[in-house]
């Protein structure tokens, strides 16, 4: 799916799913799920070689949601892709549901790795990328990290490793919305300048608007063309993107919307997208 309008339509459906499932669960992380929706949409519906009918296909591309608390955006994308019935989304965080608060690879098809402990995703992705090289496979590994997550030291150890081994089959995204649970990232523990830091660690760095599909797709093309270096796409995003009263509001990092707020959010999304 390369049509920008179709991707935008799919992203709106994913945002609606996010709000509705978190409201039903009365628990979850809407802000960072909404900010990542366009990136995840582009990956699953334009970029990645995956097959929901054969989720363990040997040469499939891998996706690591390092910011595991944003699980709703991944669950919705998987359901929209056809990995499981969308009715299952209503069971988010319920006892016995495979849709845990953080992704669990043993409970749901399409989940490559259980995540939630921040800072570990890039290390896992390095292992997947090295495995592809050793086994002669052509699959690529994609990683989505949060900007607050970059405060973890393991991230930078993994950054060195990927560059050292010239893992050009890794493409990582930073969902750079400048908000984490305790407030603004630059006030909690500043991580800028991200572009210069990743370049200094030996990465090919691309900066984009994380809500512009043309820029996302162009960056993914450039990443695929880059040889001898891993690629980091720094995507400037808005926490709570798509819902006016959630946008850039730290309070919606990990707070579920009420039924009334959810109804208002759905109306906003439908009005803007006209679907």
Can you summarize this structure?
This protein has helices at residues 4-25, 30-35, 37-47, 71-81, 121-135, 153-164, 185-189, 194-200, 213-225, 259-273, and strands at residues 62-65, 141-146, 170-176, 179-180, 183-184, 204-209, 231-236.
State the domain count. 1
CATH superfamily: Thiamin diphosphate (ThDP)-binding fold, Pyr/PP domains
Distance between the termini: 18 Å
CATH architecture: 3-Layer(aba) Sandwich
Query: Helix content range of the residues, please?
Result: 40-55%
The top-level CATH class is Alpha Beta
Biggest sheet descriptor: 5 strands, parallel
Which word captures the global form?
Answer: globular
Structural class: alpha/beta
| CATH topology call | Rossmann fold
Describe this structure in words.
This protein is globular. The chain has ten helices and seven strands. The strands form two sheets. The chain has a five-stranded parallel beta sheet, sandwiched between helices. Strands 4-5 form a two-stranded antiparallel ribbon. The chain has 275 residues and is of the alpha/beta class. The model has no long low-confidence stretch (mean pLDDT 95). The protein has one domain: Rossmann fold. α1 crosses α4 and α1 runs antiparallel to α10. This is Transketolase. Pfam families: Transketolase_N. GO terms for molecular function: metal ion binding; transferase activity. Belongs to the transketolase family. Keywords: Metal-binding, Thiamine pyrophosphate, Transferase.
């Amino acid at each position: 799916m390369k049509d920008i309008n179709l991707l935008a339509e799919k992203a709106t459906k994913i945002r609606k799913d996010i709000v509705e499932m978190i409201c039903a669960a009365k628990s979850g992380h809407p802000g960072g799920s909404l900010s990542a929706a366009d990136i995840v949409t582009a990956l699953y519906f334009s970029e990645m070689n995956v097959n929901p009918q054969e989720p363990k296909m040997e040469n499939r591309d891998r996706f690591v949601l390092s910011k595991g608390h944003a699980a709703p955006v991944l669950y919705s994308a998987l359901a929209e892709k056809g990995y499981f019935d969308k009715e299952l989304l209503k069971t988010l965080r319920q006892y016995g549901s495979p849709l845990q608060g953080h992704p669990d690879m043993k409970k749901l098809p399409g989940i490559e790795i259980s995540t939630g402990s921040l800072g570990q995703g890039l290390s896992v992705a390095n292992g997947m990328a090295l495995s592809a090289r050793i086994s002669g496979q052509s699959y690529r590994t994609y990683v989505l990290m949060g900007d607050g997550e970059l405060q973890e030291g393991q991230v930078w150890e993994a950054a060195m490793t990927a560059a050292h081994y010239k893992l050009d089959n890794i493409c990582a995204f930073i969902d750079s919305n400048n908000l984490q649970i305790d407030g603004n990232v630059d006030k909690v523990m500043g991580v800028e300048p991200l572009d210069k830091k990743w370049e200094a660690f030996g990465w090919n760095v691309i900066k984009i608007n994380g809500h512009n599909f043309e820029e996302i797709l162009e960056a993914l093309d450039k990443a695929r063309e880059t040889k001898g270096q891993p690629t980091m796409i720094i995507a400037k995003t808005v926490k709570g993107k798509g819902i006016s009263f959630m946008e850039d509001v730290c309070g919606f990092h990990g707070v579920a919307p009420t039924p009334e707020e959810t109804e208002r959010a759905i109306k906003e999304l439908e009005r803007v997208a006209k679907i």
